[in-house]
Amino acid sequence: KAFQDYIRIRDAYKTTGEAEALRCFTCGRWVRLDGNAHAGHFLPRRTNASLFDERNCHGQCIECNIDKYGNPEAYERNMLAEYGQDVIDELRANDCISIRYTDGEYDDIARKYAKMTLRLHELHKMTCKPR
């Protein structure tokens, strides 16, 4: 959950400049973060080495992430534009590596991304001070 929250907030600030909404990575639709925005994975398997790779996960609308099963054609097109073929190839290579996290590792990951989310909010406040 902390990783997903981070991805949604990261993409909200990146695409709309606010913490309340983001633009879907695959269709561009404006989506509120109050339960309507998802953190959708380019490579979705839950046991691969790309699960917590931030390049593999982006804010998506429910329709793209659930109804369109990630909207893979648009996702890949936008991944290519954002990162290039080398990153896509690296993520696909890591998709073959299976990782099983311990409870302690999940806790460490959760703490890391909770801190990163707070830092995003702090940075945004610093850059958006009224004059």
Task: Describe what this molecule looks like in 3D.
- This protein is an alpha+beta fold and 131 residues long.
- 51% of the residues lie in helices and 12% in strands.
- The protein has helices at residues 2-15, 62-67, 72-83, 85-94, 103-127, and strands at residues 21-23, 30-32, 37-41, 57-61.
- The chain has a two-stranded antiparallel ribbon with strand order 1-2. The chain has a two-stranded antiparallel ribbon with strand order 3-4.
- The radius of gyration is 15 Å and the shape is globular.
Tell me the number of helical segments per DSSP (H or I, 4 or more residues long): 5
> What level of helicity do the residues show?
40-55%
Number of strands: 4
What sequence of helices (H) and strands (E) makes up the elements? HEEEEHHHH
Low-pLDDT parts are: none
N-to-C span = 35 Å
Multimer state: single chain
- Overall form: globular
What is the gyration radius calculated from CA atoms? 15 Å
Largest sheet: 2 strands, antiparallel
Structure classification: alpha+beta
Mean pLDDT: 93
| Physical arrangement of strands within the biggest beta sheet | 1-2
What amount of the residues lies in strands? 5-15%
